[in-house]
Amino acid sequence: MDSLMILFTLLGGIALSAQSSVHATFSRKAGTIETTFLTMLTGLVFLTIIIIFFGQGNVLGILSAPVWQLSAALLGTAFLLLSVIAVPKIGVIAANVAIISGQLASSMIIDHFGWFDSLIIPLDWKRLVALIFMIIAVYFIYKGNKRSNAETIS
Predict the structure, then answer these.
(1) InterPro entries, from UniProt (predicted)?
(2) Tell me: the pLDDT tens digits for 65-117?
(3) Using the 8-state DSSP alphabet, how is residue 114 labeled?
(4) Domain range spanning residue 113?
């Protein structure tokens, strides 16, 4: 089962990179906010159909959820909008490595303090070094993208 979840996550990462690239191209024609809106609207329609035929949960449970848990929807929308803005300017790989770096940094803080009912996993030097390497990777990827773009233009 764990292998299947890893495969699903890998496929999700592949889909995310493809989505970022398609969004960048589409946003040049339709606009950034409009592209984000279309994605969210399509997701709403798609998930509504899935819930109707396969849903086993309690959709009305949303009404009793604490507000801080509902903020996940706003955070997801902000993530999508910010990635649609970033990818056309810095490229897919730079944007995705920066996204992963941001996820690592915030995850380390969340784990360290046990926020949102998560496990408490103290921040240690190994995790900090990993984050530093990710940030260095973002820098080199971004610089490489700028150099490649400048060479293409000249």
Answers:
(1) YdcZ
(2) 888 888 888 999 999 999 989 988 888 888 989 998 999 999 999 999 999 88
(3) T
(4) 2-153
Number of domains in the chain: 1
Q: 125-153 vs 92-113: helix axis angle to the nearest 10?
A: 160
Helix then strand count (H, E) for the chain reads 5, 0
Give the residue from 150, 145, 23, 148 showing the smallest Cα distance to 93.
145
Angle at 45 between CA 25 and CA 23, to 5 degrees: 10
Please report where in the chains the tokens 């803080």 appear, as a residue.
Answer: 109
29-41 pLDDT, tens digit each = 999 999 999 999 9
* Nearest CA-CA partner of 17 in 99, 96, 86: 96
